[in-house]
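Example record

The entry below shows one chain as it appears in the dataset: sequence first, then structure tokens.
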Amino acid sequence: MFKKMLLLVGCLIFSSWAVADCVRGPNGKLVCDGGDNAGGYNPNRGTAWKSETNDAGVKSTETSRGGEAKTKNGVGVVKTPDGKTCVKTRNNQGCR
């Protein structure tokens, strides 16, 4: 029990350094690293999400319920928690 508590305290200390450059905006959105990373929590639904942008400009978003999305320039692919895959291209959109 003591080891678990010590581990938890250690994680909290290191995680506070990791998110020291994050700012919560007026809309409640948490933005980190100059906008390359973001996250949020919806207290009404009990869900959280995080988003990161890689060097190629692709934004990867994950939800606490298992959804994933990859987007760039208005096009992208979404995988829902129940396994459905949806694609939006410049000219078309649809799900399987």
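Notes for this example: The chain has one helix and nine strands. The radius of gyration is 17 Å.
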